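Throughout our pipeline, every protein is held as a single compact record rather than as scattered files. This encoding replaces a full spatial description with a residue-level series of whole-number codes. The remainder of this section carries one protein's record, kept here as part of the documentation.
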Amino acid sequence: MTHHRFILIASLFVFSFSRTLAQTSLTPSTTWGTWLIGTIQLPAGEKKWGGFAEVQARANGVGRQFFYNELKGGISYDLDRNFSLMVAGGHYATYDYQALSDGPLNTEKRLWEQLIINQYLTRLKFEQRYRVEQRWFNFRDGTQPYRNRIRYRLNMFIPLNNRTITAKTTFLSIYDEIFLNPIGPTFERNRIYAGVGYQFDQQWILQIGWVNQTNYNAATFDQGIFTPQLATGKNNLVVGLTYRLKRRNTSERLPSQPD
């Protein structure tokens, strides 16, 4: 990577980070929620095929009032060390945490295709992820809408006690992800994350961090009344545990979260 490309990527990351902080400052103060993530990964081996499976639960409070879960998995193919393709899908369910026995308020089946570009610098590691999603909903009232969505995430990793993220490495992870809706509101969501992780060995990785997810509703003008863009956000404690199945390839792999 040339010096100019590095400056361009770093500038984009700083811009995204500062833009998100400005956006989330518009959101009302909210209590903290919880995201718990468990992932099993099959790293790409000599034939370049890999995959993952993941379960996730989210709560309205810290360790209480669970209302949401995800089950998902996918297959990946590494074009080389820096480029990877994936096709994946999942099932998502949202509940009223005060009436879990009533069943989900809505469920979603999702399919997505994505491209990941990894860039390994002397100390900094960057991951750029481009994703296109197809989403099928089933609401309790019987409606079944379909939606598309486009996502872009820029993730930066900084190993603290090693030059690479391998066994016995403590690292920082920071990312910003934007969610775009083709039919509006175009800028649908912004997600910013900062956390610390530890890779125990070639198999186990633990990450603990903070994520702020802010949703945006488009501004409207109806019957002479203008309603400005509405932004609602929430801070969450994130705990993620990853187990990697053993493969012969033991080169450095970025500990990115599939979510």
